Amino acid sequence: MKLHELTPNDGATKKRTRRGRGYGSGLGKTSGRGQKGQNSRSGSGGHLYRQGGNLPFFRRLPFMRGEGFTPINRVEYNEVNVALLMSRFSANDEVTPESLAKVNLLSKPKNPVVILGHGEISVPLKVKVHRVSKGALVKIKAAGGTVEIIA
To answer: At 134, which CATH number?
Structure first.
């Protein structure tokens, strides 16, 4: 078999419809566009920006800025407060994203983890997470724990 001998399978291709080639074609005279009206003319369909009486999109834009716009590079964190750490972990436990997932503290385990400073903590913990707020860092160190930031 050679390249010039290749053909599509039977029924795989279909001849294009030739419009406006007489009554015998089934699509003569008006070529399937009906009689009159906007869509019977060439170049029909109105303007690109016309939206049937609604305020066009490009004029609506100034009102939409800042609202409904999500930056594509934004990082979404799993937020865990210090108070929850104290209730789920005992002294000198290691707190990692995996251990937090085991105790069901993460809503989306694939996302990075941030520890926030709401609540109190009195047990020393070894915390290894992606981010820690300043308030949480102070509270964990005051309780005798350590904090390590993982990349």
So the answer is: 3.100.10.10
Band (pLDDT 50/70/90 cuts) for residue 44 is confident
pTM of this structure: 0.56
Q: What is the pLDDT of residues 63-110, one digit of tens each?
A: 666 666 667 788 999 999 999 998 899 999 999 999 999 999 999 999
DSSP 3-state assignment of 115?
strand
Going by C-beta distance under 8 Å and a sequence separation of 6 or more, which residues neighbour residue 34? Answer: 40
For the chain, what is the domain count? 1
Alpha-carbon span 104 to 102, nearest angstrom: 5
User: Residue 100's closest CA among 119, 89, 21, 56?
Assistant: 89
Token pair in block for residue 121: 């903590």
Query: 150, 129 in Cβ contact below 8 A?
Result: yes
| Sign of the CA dihedral with 116 first, then 87, 130, and 78 last | negative
Report yes or no on 119 lying in a domain: yes
